[in-house]
Amino acid sequence: MDVLDFLERLDEINVLFEPIYSADEHVIVAYEVIGQFTDGEEMLNVVDFTYDESIPIDIRNEVEHFLIKKAMVLAKEEVTTKQVGLYLPCNPNLFMEDFGEGYFQLLKDQMEESLLPYIYLVIPEHKFNGEFEQLQHPIRYIKTYGVKVALDSIGSDSNLDQILMLEPAVLKINVSQLNYNAWGAQNHVFTTIQSLAVKIGATLMFDNIQTDYQLHHAWKNGARYFKGVYLQQPSNQFLPKDTLKERFRNECKQFISTEKRLLEVKYEEMKKLQKTIANIVEYTKPDGKDVDKLLQLAKQLENYAFRFYICNEEGFQISPNIVRKNGNWNVEEQAIGKNWSWRPYFLFNIIKLRNDVKGELSDIYSDIATGELTRTYSMALNEHEYLFVDLTYDYLYEHNIVN
């Protein structure tokens, strides 16, 4: 498409609004702006156009500003009357051409200051080519007016330091870029993002949802906002806020029912595991300094664990590691004397075990030595000795307690 011809036909840009739904109220809480231009059989995504560096930057800037202005004119009444958010594209490279002045002036010209808190700048931070510290300053200034930032396409290309600098209100995750069969503990990128969102007070939005399966996993993994063709196609029309409320609520009930069943099974398996290990320990009566006793315990734990050891209340290891390798249990004396109190929550868990918890099963994590996903089961042997049992991934998987 000829760029100059496109500039003469900017009025033909079709502004679409893709609804964003909330997980708590099951209503439309915002719309994301999409720009399309049709030239014969060719369909141009206007936002993609603004990132095409073969096109002069002033032209791309003009096109982005035109799209934003047209979108705000069309959406202003919807924002005002229904108080829904409006997610506007913001190419950070164009934005920084004048340090955000043109973009910000456009917002102020089209929206009363009282409406600016409903505006979200959709920024893909990994596409910014400049010094990130420079981008941070005008963004921070605009945010003083209530404008919010939604970081786009969060994933393995994202820089955590840059996310922290912009202090986004929303982290957008494109489900098509995730292996959602491995969401949760096995997807370290996702769990890092999930944890970061909690720490900085950002909301997770799952984008490009195309199936009920993806919606279920997004709901299960802490998404507050959802968007995608499974819910609603982008349109040039605004919809009633509760247009999918009944359908959404019914699907949510199904998710809850399914999840409760899974959690009941998981809870029972964890109780069973706790009881089994407690019975084995009571039968074998392990002693941190008696290797024969430890090997008796190892034989009983063969179907559950690949390693165990005993520590005192300060985290110093008083037993060797008893480790299963190639079908045999080995005694690693060199582990005696190591201290594990540096591990997060170690000392707090000791206090819980000493006072009112019979056994504690950790979250899943990757073992430093083997790389294998595991959970550690811990229990008090007496007032001064605590047993730590590292469970095999096979056992966790077979008994549905991986995640």
From TrEMBL:
One family name in Pfam for this protein: YkuI_C
Checking InterPro entries in the record gives: Cyclic-di-GMP_PDE-like, EAL_dom, EAL_sf, Sensor-like_sf, YkuI_C
What is the recorded name of this protein? EAL domain-containing protein
Q: Which domain of life is it from?
A: Bacteria
Record domain EAL: where: 1-248
List the PANTHER family: CYCLIC DI-GMP PHOSPHODIESTERASE PDEF, SIGNAL TRANSDUCTION PROTEIN CONTAINING A EAL DOMAIN
Q: What is the lineage of its organism?
A: Bacteria, Bacillati, Bacillota, Bacilli, Bacillales
